Each structure stands twice: as C-alpha cells, then as structure tokens.
Amino acid sequence: MADAFSYTFPAIRGVQAGREFYVSMCPLRLLTKLFIFDNEELVPELRAQRTLNKARVPEIARYIVDNQDSYTFSAITVSVDGDLKFEPVAGEGSASYRMGSLTVSMTSKFIVNDGQHRRAAIVQALENAPELGDETIAVVFFMDRGLKRCQQMFADLNRHAVKPSASLGVLYDHRSATANVARHLSLTSKVFKGLIESERSSLSPRSRSLFTLSALHFATTELLTEQESGDFHKASEKCIAFWEMVGEQIPEWTYVRESRMTSGDVRRDFIHSHAIVLQALGRAGRALFQLPEAERAQRVKRLRNVDWLRSNAITWEGRAMVGGSMAKSGQNITLTCNEIKRVLGLELTPEETAAEEAWAASRAPKRSRTRKTT
C-alpha cells in the first residue's frame, strides 16, 4: 500500500499562531518531484496561489546558472495535505527537543504557498547545470488545513512584501556592470557627487538631492554599449567625460552644487534633472560619441540653448511631459531623445523616426468635415 511508504526530512519544529510548522532542507533535484502547483486551469477562487508567470522563469533560471558560486534564494513555503509525524531526537525539555525527523506519507500532496517561481526556475536551471542538483534550499512545511487556509497563507505571506526601490537595488547590485559604473559616478563625478539619492527612487520637494541613483543607472545603460560596459575603467572614463560636458551646458546643476539654487526649485521648474531626461540624454550621448572628439565637443554646446523649463509646453508636452506632469513611458523617452538629437544635429534611427512621425500626426490639427448638400 502507498500509505506504507513515506518521505523523511531532517527538520526543526517551531510554533506560530499556536500551530506547529517545520523547517527542513531539500535537494534541488527533488523539487520537481515533491512540490506541485494547483491546477492553473481552475478559476482563482478555487486555487491556493496565483498562476505561474512563465515569462519570469527563464530570467531567474539564468540568474542561478550564471551565478553558481554566489546565487541566493530564500525558503520555499509549502502546505502538506496528508499525514505529518515529527519525531524529536531528544525528549521534551532537552535542547534538542525541537530537532528531529519529519515523516510525510507519499500519498500527501505538497502545495507551494510561496516560491512557485523559484521552484520552476530551479527546475529549468538544472537542465543546463545538473551539477546543482545536490545543493539545497530551505523549505518551510505547514499542515494543510484546507483551501481557505492556503489562500489566507498566500495573502498573509505577500501582504507586507515590499519590493526595494530601484535606487537601492542599484546600490546593492555588484554583479551589474552598469550599476557599478553608476555607483562610481555618484561618488566621484563632480556633476553628481553629493547630489545623488541612493536609497529612494523619488525625491521630495525638500530633498537636497538633485538626481536618483536609479535615474543615473538608466542613463548609464543608455550611454554605454554592452561591450563598453564590460570594461569598468573605460566605461567610467566615457561616462565622466560625457556628463561633465553636459553639466557645463546646464547651469542650474552648477547652481545647486554652489547652493545658489535648491534641488527642489530646480526639479519643480526644470525637466533636466528628471529620470526621463537623463535617460534621453544618455541615449543621445551614445550617438554623439560616434562623432570625432572635436566635433562632439562643439555639438554638445548646443544644449546650452535648450529651454528646459517645464513651462515650455510647446516643446516638452507629449515628449517629456503628459498633462504637465513628467512622463515615464518608453515612448516618451524616445520622443524626448528625438528633441535632444534634433538640437545636437544627430540622425534619428528608423524606430525614432517612426515614433516622431506618429507623434507629429497626433498633434496635427484635424480637418473639419463638411457635409455636402444636394
């Protein structure tokens, strides 16, 4: 009989909300055999967790394979629909009373409450790196107390989950070449030093910072080619050279460093320190660096003649702004870059040309239609 067979896990017993739970380690190669998902064809009301976002899985799998010596995963949480039996290695009152063996019937069903994307990514990663199969991941076991309880567990586990800000992600990401360059710029460039908010991705009106680290990172990614970003020293030199040229053409940035203007006033009245414009400047800078150095230095001086005021709606509404507020979409970045390229005398790519034509068509006055009379 199947009930005569069981899984045994070394485990530590704990108590939450008056109920026991168990923490163990599971070899990665066993994840696909032990832990399953709900039937994704069921309506949400009859499932215990969200459907698997398959687009996320390959990215997580690549992270594991590309960082086999440094990847990090938190525990997977599962509910066990079946018999559980915990046998401590020592009697009650002993220091080892909470350590022991967790026995689970093979007829039990394991439902992943938290970590379904990690599990799917690990399974996919093992196809390319089977040697990782003997490594382990922490698993937290709860007794399954029905669909309602599983759904509540999912809600509770995700209730207070807050994704870190993009700036903090850049600050702590030492694998990304462009993140390394952006951090270096924030600490050494005379344009950005002392003016970067490295923890938050938005700035309050009273903030002394003029830029966010995430905005600088996005701009750095646009400026550098993938090949350039791989060489930290050359990438840093290029970025410093470019942003110092640009900084010389935007006097408000200097005024903030010299305490002649506040960061809040500049961000309120001008668009040039906002993420979308920095990113557009970086993208235009990549094209600018295809010119000879002397010509590049002359072209960039044209930025001094740009009217960066928010009140300049004729230029920026529909490009960097929508309804008077700073925009964030990829299309707006492209349209802002197009205007900067026009000022610098740079050619647009086919994609940028198409976006410009679509924008111009949307702003063209509609012809009035007259009905013919007979």
UniProtKB/TrEMBL annotation:
Composition bias type Basic residues, residue spans: 364-374
Region ranges (Disordered): 354-374
Name by which UniProt lists this protein: DNA sulfur modification protein DndB
